[in-house]
Amino acid sequence: MVIEGEMMEIHNYMEEAVKEVLDGILSQREDVCKCDVCRSDMMAWALNRLPSKYVATQKGRVYTKLDEINIQFKTDIIKEVVRAVEYVKDKPRH
Ligand SMILES: [Zn+2]
Measured in angstroms, how far is the CA atom of residue 58 from the centroid of ligand 1? Predict the structure, then answer.
């Protein structure tokens, strides 16, 4: 069914979740490089180890907040993002 005027898009919600967790962790770390190269590497590293979570939403709609994800899911994301930060910290590409 096509609803006129309702532009839909497919979005990997895991990207939003990882970005939010990464921002939170990096804001508490003074010993880690936070440049675009390192941030992108951390995002990619964590996303490669977490399941994709695709959602179909109306274009421009605000995505579900991380608070609404169940706790175990959130714990898994935090675990992988922390590992990603440590990995990139030890092997920065610059
Ligand atoms: Zn860097």
Answer: 35
Render pLDDT for 44-80 as a digit per residue (tens, 0 to 9): 999 999 999 888 777 766 555 555 667 778 899 999 9
3: CB partners within 8 A, 6+ apart: none
Ligand 1 centroid – CA 23 distance (Å): 14
68 CA → ligand 1 middle, Å: 31
Domains in the chain: boundaries: 13-90
Backbone phi, psi, residue 76, to 5° = -60, -40
Ligand 1 center from residue 36 Cα (angstroms)? 7
pTM of the full structure: 0.80
